[in-house]
Design a protein that fits this description.
The protein is 63% helix and 0% strand. With 319 residues, it is mainly alpha-helical.
């Protein structure tokens, strides 16, 4: 007798993996166009894009990491570096591409660390090589190492969006058996980051990210229901305060210009769905468009894309 079908959004694949190709470029059309050419070995367009990005560190990190995930990115970046040995952009792209390879078991962590250090030497003010180190430490390092790399990022750009998200995910994994501890360090970290950031900083959403990341850990530990709507994790006083503050920030600031804006909107929409606030979720889904992200829709072990579509359809009243 065959097993029953999974409920809507549930994946048979462990970890909630989806066959849907999520695009890390999000809504960056310049990046998408450049990446297409870079994938064919035409690195001159990537060179122009990174030069034009300048010292917009969040956008630079977003673009470099997305380009680094391109098949054969390390080879094309190496060609570029051979042509321009002193290019910090080429070295940084090669470093992040080597990190991606190491995380997929195609290169060694040592090679990735060395590449990041070489890039950092060519661009001492750039947080991106240290972002590469932080990405690597999430998969091949200790929390102490990750903390040091995070400090190096913050030294160069105190409000670095991607780095704060990575540290939030890492800290949420501490003490997985402690349950719904309102004093868990990940909440303190997220609150501190949100408070020290400028008023218009998207780090205001970080407490919601922390809440979702902790939910991921508790579900995996078996101490929390994998039904986010029915879980008490999203209905407590602290959760309601965090989600209201983040949604109010979005209504006031709506940082559409931030390169990782859609990542924040996915976390916010997921939180509002779990809270049962369908009208607020609908407004967020309208802004997200087709730019779904696997996090946090996979955090209950469900297929992220099917879960996103189901939640969006329910909020918008569409099939």
């Amino acid at each position: 007798m065959s097993p029953p079908p999974p409920p809507p959004g549930r994946s048979r694949r462990r970890g909630g993996r989806s066959g849907h190709p999520f695009d890390t470029a999000l809504d960056d059309t310049e990046l998408i166009d450049t990446r297409g050419q870079f994938a064919q070995g035409r690195w001159a367009r990537a060179r122009s894009l990174l030069v034009a990005t300048g010292h917009d560190w969040d956008r630079r990190g977003h673009r470099v990491v997305s380009l680094a995930e391109t098949p054969s990115a390390a080879g094309w970046a190496q060609d570029w570096l051979l042509a321009e040995p002193e290019s910090a952009d080429a070295a940084t792209l090669l470093a992040c591409a080597t990190v991606v390879r190491a995380l997929h078991g195609k290169d060694t962590p040592e090679a990735a660390r060395d590449a990041c250090l070489r890039a950092a030497g060519l661009a001492p003010d750039d947080p991106t090589p240290w972002l590469g180190q932080l990405l690597l430490a999430r998969g091949h390092g200790t929390q102490e190492e990750a903390g040091k790399h995070f400090d190096e990022v913050r030294l160069r750009h105190p409000d670095h969006h991607h780095a704060h998200h990575l540290m939030t995910a890492l800290l949420a994994e501490n003490n997985p058996d402690s349950g719904q501890d309102p004093l868990h360090e990940v909440y303190d970290f997220a609150a501190w980051a949100a408070e020290q950031a400028p008023a218009d900083s998207p780090l205001a959403v970080l407490p919601v990210v922390a809440h979702a990341e902790r939910y991921r850990v508790l579900v995996a530990a078996g101490s929390e229901s994998d039904d986010p709507v029915g879980s008490g994790h999203w209905s407590g006083r602290r959760a309601r305060q965090v989600m209201k503050a983040a949604f109010d920030w979005w209504l006031e600031w709506e940082r559409e210009d931030h390169p990782r804006n859609r990542a924040d909107l996915n976390f916010l929409a997921h939180a509002k769905v779990c809270e049962g606030r369908s009208a607020e979720a609908a407004a967020l889904f309208q802004r997200i468009g087709h730019h779904a992200t696997p996090a946090p829709w996979s955090y209950s072990g469900r297929d992220p894309y099917r879960t996103f579509l189901t939640a969006r359809g329910a909020a918008l009243g569409t099939p």
